[in-house]
Write a structure and sequence with these properties.
Length: 169
């Protein structure tokens, strides 16, 4: 089975339901959380840079880990190609802590006989997402002066890969 579309998970409606069991505490944990797709959060050369640009979110959204990884790769490739290695420091400022779950429903002939419907519908973990609030910074790029145009272009490309709308400050 493939990945469900991002639109199924990108809105933050309320605090996520987490089952709390007093009698059996083991039931309170989400078991078997899949590994997040993003592993690298700091790239480039650390140092003193005069210019800092950030990608700031305008909405409350959830960003899946695979979307963060896609935006990270796009930004890093653009910066490495246009500015060269060692001339910038790029940092991902959010982490996908939130566990996404799916209550899979049986399909096909005879599915109604053994399908549970919404009974015991806690769902199985299928991925992770970062919950972003309005005004929160997602990416930060520090670079040398007079490289603002290329850094803005890289962050604009990254914003196209992510749900919601973004400002570059």
């Amino acid at each position: 089975m493939g990945l469900r579309p991002g639109r199924a998970y990108n809105k933050i409606t309320k605090k996520p339901f987490t089952r709390i069991s007093i009698h059996k505490p083991r039931k309170s944990y989400v078991k078997g959380v899949p590994v997040g797709k993003i592993h690298q959060f700091e790239m480039g050369a650390k140092g003193d840079y005069e210019q800092t640009l950030e990608l700031v979110c305008k909405d409350n959204v959830q960003i899946r880990s695979n979307a963060l990884e896609s935006a990270r790769i796009t930004t890093l490739k653009h910066l490495s190609k246009k500015l060269g290695e060692g001339t910038f420091f790029f940092k991902v400022l959010v982490y996908p802590h939130h566990v996404l779950r799916e209550n899979s429903i049986a399909t096909g002939a005879g599915a109604d006989r053994f399908s549970q419907g919404m009974r015991r519908s806690f769902g199985k973990p299928i991925g992770q997402a970062a919950r972003i609030k309005e005004g929160q910074r997602v990416f930060s790029v520090k670079s040398k002066p007079n490289t603002e145009k290329e850094v803005r272009a890289a962050l604009k490309k990254a914003s196209k890969k992510l749900p919601g709308t973004y400002l570059i400050k």
